[in-house]
Amino acid sequence: MTNIIDYIVKNNLGDIASVIGVIVAIIGFFVTISNVVKSKNAAQKAEAASYKIRENIFRYDAISECAEAISLLNEIKRLQRGNLWLILPDRYSAVNRLLYSLKAFDSELMKNHKMYIQNAIQQFVSLEELVDRSITRNKLPPSESIVQINKIVNQQLDKLYEIQSFLKHQMI
Q1: For a tag site, which of 28, 109, 125, 145 has the least CB within 10 Å?
Q2: What average pLDDT is seen over the chain?
Q3: Whole-model pTM?
Q4: Rg (CA), the chain
């Protein structure tokens, strides 16, 4: 045993082992730093992917709400043409709920889209009040009014189709 210790002391192997230990520690430190940076980059990419997925889910919901509103508006036109006025106030309310929800979808809608939606909400509130007054008076709106109401509904349909198309293109 003393021969081994003498050999280590005589050949300065302790110093060499210390230098090698320092070099290994430095290399280990840089490898650790490199792995931390890679982990951070991977976490940032995962966060970005998660954000994109969440945005696409919200966008899909908005597209779905547009489609539902479009369907309701087409039904409203048919009901108005068929003079089924008692059902219409509920349909106007349902459209407004969808439009409010769509308006709350903030991240992708452009400012003019939000103005379209707000304008549509106001118009459908007015139409609902008009129909409610007609029902209360037990008097149908004149046929000219029905044509004008359907014209308003058609204008809002066109704007909703535009918004829906815009949102679909954002999915790509």
Answers
A1: 28
A2: 86
A3: 0.71
A4: 35
* Per-residue model confidence (pLDDT) at position 68: 96
How many domains does one find in the chain?
1
Select from 44, 66, 73 the least CA-distant residue to 152.
73
Closest CA to 152 of 92, 87, 82, 68: 92
Write the CA distances from 2 to 10, 11, 12, 76, integer angstroms.
12, 14, 15, 102
Q: What range defines the domain where residue 97 resides?
A: 55-170
Closest of 113, 107, 99, 100 to residue 54, by C-alpha: 107
Half-sphere exposure of residue 133: CA atoms within 13 angstroms, side-chain side: 7
The enclosing domain of 105 has a CATH number of 1.20.120.660
Region for residue 139 given its phi and psi (left: phi exceeds 0; alpha: psi -120 to 50; beta: otherwise): beta
- Take residue 74 and report the two structure tokens written for it: 């087409």
Render pLDDT for 118-146 as a digit per residue (tens, 0 to 9): 999 999 999 899 888 888 888 877 777 78
What residue type is assigned to position 62 of the chain? Answer: A
> What letter does residue 109 receive in the DSSP assignment?
-
CB 134 within 8 A of CB 85: yes
At position 138, the amino acid (one-letter code) is N
